[in-house]
Design brief:
This protein is an alpha+beta fold and 141 residues long. Helices cover 38% and strands 18% of the residues. The strands form 3 sheets. Strands 4-5-6 form a 3-stranded antiparallel β-sheet, with no helix packed on it. Strands 1-2 form a two-stranded antiparallel sheet. Helix 1 packs antiparallel against helix 2. 9% of the residues are buried.
Length: 141
C-alpha cells in the first residue's frame, strides 16, 4: 500500500463481499435448521429474501465506505456526482463555466456578436440574419 488517501481499501472491500456472501448463504442454511413444513410463508420469505437483503445492504455500505473514489462517498462527503469541483494541492476549487454563442452562423455564415443575438433557450441562440437556432459552446472561466 502506498498510503494514498484516494486508493480503495481492499481489506474493507473484501470484508463487504464476505458479509454479503455469509448473509446470503446463512439465510438459506438457517432456514433448514427449522422444520420447513411448520414454517409459515412469511418466515420462509424472511430467510430466503430478508436475511440476504440485510447482508447485501450491510456489505454494500462497507464496500462504499472503503472506496474514497466512489461517487456515493464523494457525494456524502462534499464532492458529489455533479459538483463542478476539483482539488488542487489539498484545496477544493470550484469550476465556473459560461456558454458562448458561435462567432459565425452555420446557416448563412454571418458574423454573430453578443449584441445582435437573441437567446431562445439556456443553451441556444437565434441568428439575427437568417433565424437559425444555434447551440452555444461551454467554456471554463
Amino acid at each position: 500500500m502506498s498510503g494514498q488517501k484516494d486508493e480503495p481499501n481492499m481489506m474493507g472491500m473484501c470484508t463487504g463481499m464476505a458479509v454479503i456472501i455469509i448473509f446470503f448463504f446463512g439465510g438459506f442454511i438457517s432456514m433448514f435448521t427449522f422444520d420447513i413444513f411448520e414454517m409459515g410463508v412469511g418466515m420462509i420469505l424472511f430467510f430466503m429474501m430478508g436475511i440476504p437483503m440485510i447482508g447485501f445492504l450491510l456489505g454494500a455500505a462497507i464496500i462504499i465506505k472503503s472506496n474514497p473514489r466512489s461517487t456515493f462517498t464523494r457525494g456524502f462527503m462534499g464532492g458529489g456526482l455533479f459538483a463542478p469541483r476539483y482539488e488542487r494541492g489539498g484545496q477544493t476549487v470550484e469550476r465556473n463555466f459560461i456558454h458562448e454563442p458561435p462567432a459565425f452562423c452555420s446557416g448563412c455564415g454571418g458574423s454573430i456578436t453578443s449584441e445582435d443575438i437573441e437567446w431562445v433557450g439556456p443553451l441556444s441562440v437565434k441568428c439575427p440574419y437568417c433565424g437559425v437556432t444555434l447551440p452555444t459552446s461551454k467554456r471554463e472561466i
